Amino acid sequence: MKARMLIATAVVALSGALATSASAEAAQKTPTKVTIKGSDGNFYGNVKSDDPSCAEGRKVTLFKLKGSQPNPKVDEKINSDTASLNGDKYTWDTGNTGEKNGKFYARVKKTDECGGDLSKVIRS
């Protein structure tokens, strides 16, 4: 009985330590936001962050929604671009993708230092 109690206590303590470690790691990432606009097959937007290194050079991927909610593992990858400084904003632009009908969103993946984000879904 004592052995079971010790094992249960160890499992609870280890779970708490892992959760705290994961939370601390997530909290250290600089928040990043990606926006999307577009119509008639042309898509563009901004990557925003308080840390310019989390916006400059970030790869933005455009997806076409297949289901009812964004899911990059399932949705169709249409195109991608790299955000670059344009005036005072970091912009991306896929140009004319030829995709004129559907629902679309953009994604930036998280990095070691920067958070990731999915844009709102737009209809084109």
Structure description:
This protein folds into 2 domains: 29 residues; 92 residues, Immunoglobulins (Immunoglobulin-like). It has 1 helix and 10 strands. The strands form 2 sheets. Strands 1, 2, 3, 6 and 7 form a 5-stranded antiparallel β-sheet that branches. Strands 4, 5, 8, 9 and 10 form a 5-stranded antiparallel β-sheet that branches. Strand 6 and strand 7 form a beta hairpin. The radius of gyration is 20 Å and the shape is globular. It starts with a helix and ends with a strand.
Question: Which keywords apply here?
Answer:
single chain, 124 residues, alpha+beta, Immunoglobulin-like, five-stranded antiparallel β-sheet, globular
Provide the residue-averaged pLDDT: 86
Low-confidence parts: 5-21
Q: How many angstroms separate the termini? A: 64 Å
Beta strand count: 10
Encode the helix/strand succession as letters. HEEEEEEEEEE
CATH class of the largest domain: Mainly Beta
Radius of gyration computed on alpha carbons:
20 Å
Strand content: 35-45%
CATH architectural name of the largest domain = Sandwich
The CATH topology assignment of the largest domain is Immunoglobulin-like
Q: Provide the domain count.
A: 2
Q: Can you identify the CATH superfamily of the largest domain?
A: Immunoglobulins
User: What is the general shape?
Assistant: globular
**Which structural class should the secondary elements be placed in?**
alpha+beta
